[in-house]
Records
---
Amino acid sequence: MSYKGGERLKNIVGVRFKKTGKLYYVDINTDEAVKIGDNVLAETSRGQEIGRIVKILGDVNTDDLEMQTFIRIATNEDMKVYKQNEKRALEALEFCKGEAKKLNLNMKLLVAEYIFDASKLIIYFVAEDRVDFRELVKILASKYKTRIELRQIGPRDEIKVYPNLGMCGKEVCCRTYLQNFEPVTIKMAKEQGLQINMSKLSGACGKLMCCLKYEEDTYKQNLQMLPNIGDIVRVKGEKEEAKVIGLDALKLKVKVRFKLSKEEERFSVYPIDMIEWESNRG
C-alpha cells in the first residue's frame, strides 16, 4: 500500500457478485495484499454480498465508478456462511415451488438466493402474465422470518440459470462472459447477408442471438464502402456496365451481373477497388 502526505492511496478493485454479473468497484480499505480471485465482503444496494475480485485498478479516480462499500476481505468463516446460504436457498426454492403449486400460480420459479447476512431472500421467476404472488410472499415471510423479494425476469435472464449450448457448439455467451444485453434487431441480420430464418437466428432463449450484435459496427462501416444491391457499376478492365446482385461486406467484395445479350449473362465477383460507381448512400 502506498501513502502520500500521510494519506492512504485508494486501492480500487473490480468485483463481480455473480459469475457474469455487472462489474462493481470497491476500495479495499486495508493493508492486506489482494489478488484476482480473492473474495471480498461488501455492502451493495441489495445488502451485504460476497464478490470475487476480477480486476485490480490500484489508485484511480473513482468519480465515474460505481463504488460499493468495503467491509472486509472474506474469511474462511465468511465463505462457510456463503455456502450455508446457498444450501438454505435451494431448500427455500423447493418449498416455494410447492406453495406456488398449491396456490395455482402460473409461474416458473428458477433460483433463490440469500444475501450474506440472511436479512433478505430473493427468488427469481418467469411468467407469461402478471402474477399476484402476495399470498406466497406472506407464507414465505412467515416461514423464513426474513424479507422476501420475488423478482420476475425475462427469457434471456432465464437462460443464464441453466447450462445451454449455442448454435456454435459452445456454452451460451450470457452464461460465460456477457454482462449486459444489448438490443438485437432483424436489420442486423439483413446487413450481414443472413437468411431471415427465425429458427436459425434465435438463441436458446427464443430471442435473436446476441452474437448478431458483435460484428454490427464492422458491417455498418464496410457497407458504407460498398454500392447498393441493384446499383449499376463499372468494373475496371470491362467494357460493359454491370448490375450489383450481391455483397460480401466482410471481404469487401461485390458480385455483379453483365448483360451480354438477351440470352447471355455473365456473373463475376470483384474486390471493391475494381468497382466504380456513383455512391448514393446518405
Note: Residues 159-214 form one domain.
---
Amino acid sequence: MSDDSFIREVNDEIRREKAQVLWDRFGPALLGLAILVVLGTAVFVGYRYWDESRANRSGDAFSEALKLANDGKNDEALTALEQLEKDGYGAYPLLARMRAATVKADKGDFAAAVADFDGVAADTAIPQGIRDMARLRAALVLVDNGSLADVSSRVEALTADNNTLRHTAREALGLAAWKAGKAQDALKLFDQIAADDGAPRNARQRATLMSELIRGSGAS
C-alpha cells in the first residue's frame, strides 16, 4: 500500500469517527427537531383546512340567509341569521347580527331593529367603525319612527368634520330636524353636506335638493 493510500484511509477513518461522535452527540436532538417540524407542519395545514372549512360553511349559511331575506322570506331569514349568530365563525356572527336588525326593520318591527343596532353600538368588543355604523343604522330607522332627540343621541357625534360617516349622519339628522319643524337646523346640515367636497356626489345632490326645498317653502 502506498503512503498516499494509507493516509487517505486514515483520514477516512478519522472522519467516520468524528461523524459518529457528532451523531451520538447531536443525532437524537436533530431527529427530534425533524419530527417536530413535520408534526408542526401537519398541525398548521390541518388547522388551516379546519379554519377555512368553518369560514366557508358560515359564508354559505350567510349567503342563504341573504337570499331568503331578498326573496321576502323574512321569518325564515331571521331564523337562519339567529342560528348563524350562535354557531357562525369569524366575522359572520356579527354580520348576521347586523343583517337581522335590518330584516326586522323591513318587517316593520322598528323597535326591535333599533334595539339590535343599539346593542351592537354598545358592545365594546366590536370594532369602533362597526359600532358607529350601527348607531347610524339605528338613526336612519328612527328618522321616520322616532324623534329628533332619538336620532341626535345616536349620530350627533358622527357629524364631526373628521368622521368618515359625517355625510350620512348629517343627512339623517337634517331629515329628523326638518320633520320636527326645525328648518334652520336642517338647512344648516344640508348646506354642510352640499359644500363638502369629500361627500359622495349623490349625497351632495340630495342635500342640494333639500336645501332648495326648505328655502322654497319659506320655512327658512
Note: The CA atoms of residues 193 and 204 lie 6 Å apart.
---
Amino acid sequence: MKSKRFPLSTFLFLLLSAVSYSQDKNIDNYYQHAPFKMPKVVVPVFADKNFSIKDYGAVSDAKILNTTAFAKAIDACTKAGGGKVIVPAGVWLTGPIELKSNVDLHLDHGAIIQFTKDHSQYPIIKTGGSGNSYAPASPIYGYDLTNIAITGDGIIDGAGDSWRPVKKGKPSASQWNEITKTGVLSKDGKVWWPNEEAMNGEEYLKTLKQKTNKPTPEDYLPAREYLRPYMLYLVHCENVLIEGITLRNSPKFVFYPNHCNNLTMDRVSVYNDWWAQNGDGIDISACKNVVIFKCNVNAGDDGICMKSSGNKGNGAELENVLIAGCTVFRAHGGFVIGSNTDGGMNNIYVRDCNFIGTDIGIRVKSNAGRGGLVKNIYVDNITMKNIVHEAISFNTYYEDVPAGKEAKDVKTTATNKVPEFTAFYISNINCDAAKQAISIVGLPQQPVHHIYFENIFIKADKGFESVDASDIDLKKVSIISDKPIYNTHGCKNINIHE
C-alpha cells in the first residue's frame, strides 16, 4: 500500500479538533454513543453530615501521626449513617487509612494527606483476595464496602520513594547519584534498594515457602520492606467515586480496584516518577461498570491499564468500561490491556484520549499461562505524540520482569490459559512520531484475529509488522515511514483498503 502524506496543517487541525471535541463532551455523551449498551454507573450519594478530622484530635504539623484521628472520624461517620470526613487545608501525616461504607473522605483545597515513611506503621494484614495472602496494609484500603468516595481538591502522597527499588538505567546520572546517597545497591550495582530488608526480601520469602505452607502475618514481617503495598487498594466494593483529587508517589500501583462494581474516576490526577518500579497509574482489575473520565496520568509503568484474573465461568470478569477525555504522559503504555487477562474482558470503550511521550500508545499484552478471551474493544479518536516504541502493539509473548531480573530468567512454558485477542475496533488514530507504527505478535496456536483499523495516520521509523495474525482489516491506514510499510509472517487474510 502506498503511504499518504498529510500536510502539516491538516495534521494540526486533526490534533486540535480531537482536543476541543473532548472538552465539549460530558459523560452522558459517551454513554449515548458507546458501541455497546453501557450500563449507567451508580454514583454514591452521602448524608449531609460532616466529620472533621480536627474534631478527633488530628494535628497538621507534618510531624504527629494522625492515624488514630482518621480512624475515629471515619468510624463516627459510618456509625452515624454516613457523610463526609473532612480533611482541612494543611499537611496531615498518617499511617494507613481504612475506609468504611457510606463515607466520603473529602480533601479541602490545600489539604495534603502525607503517609509516613516509617514502615513499622504498616501492619501485615490479610489481603482482600482469596486464600491466605498477606501484605503490608495499603496507605488507603477498603474491603467489601458499599458507597465510598474520595473527593476534593487535595493531594494524597503515598511516600512511595521510601519503598520502591530503582533500576540504574531509568533515572538520569544526576538523579541516580542523588538516589544512591542512601539505601543499598545490589551486588552488580544495577538496582538501588531503600534498605537491606527490601533487597533480601525475595530470598527470605523463598525460604519461608520451603518452611511452611501456612505462614502467619508475623512470618511476613521480615519481608515487609520488599512486599510493597498498593497505594489505594479496594476489593469487592460497590458504588465507588474518586473525584478531583491528586494521587502521587505510590509504593507500587497507584490505584488498584479489584472485583469492584460501579466505579467512577472523575478528573483525577495520578503521578509517579517515570522510573517508579511497578508504579502503574490506574489498574482496573476484574471490575464491572467503570467510568474513567478526564483523568491525567504520569506513571512509572502502565498508565491506564485493564487487568482480569480468576474467571468463574460466568462471562468476562472485566466488563463495561468507559475511558474518555484522559491524557497519559510518561508511562509504559497509554491505554493498556494485560498482562493478566485470564479472567476475560468484554466491552471496553476508549475515546478522545491523548498519549504524550508514552513508551507505547495502545498496548495489548499477555502470555500463555495468564491469558484469556479479550473481545469487543473499541478505541477511537486518539492523539499520540513522541511515542518511544510502538504506537499500537499486540504482544502474546509478554514477560513481566521484576527488578534485578532479565526476561530470559522468567520465560514461561505454559500451555494453558492461552490469550485470545479478537474483535478490536481501532479508529481515528493520529500519531505524530513513533519508532514503529503497528506491531502484532500472536501465538501459532492462537493468532491475534479479527482486528479492524480505520482512519489511521502514523508517522514512524518502521511501519506495520505482524506475526501469527489473521483477519486483520486496514481501511484508510496511512503510515509515513522510510522503511517498508508492511511486513508479515505466518499471517492470513490481511486486508488493505484505500
Note: DSSP finds six helices and 36 strands in the chain.
